[in-house]
Every structure is written in C-alpha cells, then in structure tokens.
Design goal:
Elements (H helix, E strand, L loop, with lengths): L30 H5 L8 H5 L11 H4 L3 H16 L9
Bound molecules: zinc ion.
The site of zinc ion (ZN) has 6 residues, from helix 1 and helix 4.
Length: 91
C-alpha cells in the first residue's frame, strides 16, 4: 500500500526585490552634433567610425548618433560606397 502524501505548498511568495541597481548608462552624445559637423561622404575617415570592418553601418543605439544625423549618415555612407571610399558589406 502506497501512502502518498501530497505536500501542499501554499502561499507562493513572490519576493519583490526593491531597489535594484539600474545600469548607469553613459549619456551618448551624437558626435556630429557635438562637433557641429554633418556626415560627409568626402570625409571617409569620419564615416569609418560609424561602420563595421565589413562596411555595415552601426546602429544609432550603439554610436549614439541622433536620428537626424543617422539618416544623413546612411546617405553619406551609401555615397561613399559608390565612390569606393568605404567597402560594401562583404560576405
Ligand atoms: Zn546629431
């Protein structure tokens, strides 16, 4: 005869951990705004900081570029690619 006892666990506690540390993020400032420059296809060194080695454009969240300049940047990078200042995405 098996005597099975079911242990009832009542009152599931949800421990609320208050006061969690928020990751202190560095406030990124758009480099174009900071330097008061605009993305320029004639300045490939400037653009190169915003693309990967493979030539992919880094997202604005990583570089901290503001939306306005990110748009301009993509345009300029594309121009720079056509003019062979920057590589196309290599596979
Ligand atoms: Zn900006």
């Amino acid at each position: 005869m098996a005597d099975e006892k079911e242990t009832m666990v009542e009152g599931s506690f949800r421990d609320k951990k208050m006061g969690g540390k928020r990751q202190s993020f560095k406030k990124k400032v758009c480099k174009f705004c900071a330097q008061k420059t605009e993305p320029d296809y004639k300045n490939p060194e400037q653009l190169r900081r915003c693309v990967t080695e493979r030539g992919k454009i880094l997202p604005a969240r990583i570089t901290g570029t503001c939306a306005k300049h990110q748009r301009a940047l993509t345009q300029e990078v594309k121009r720079a690619r056509v003019l062979a200042y920057l590589p196309f995405d290599r596979k």
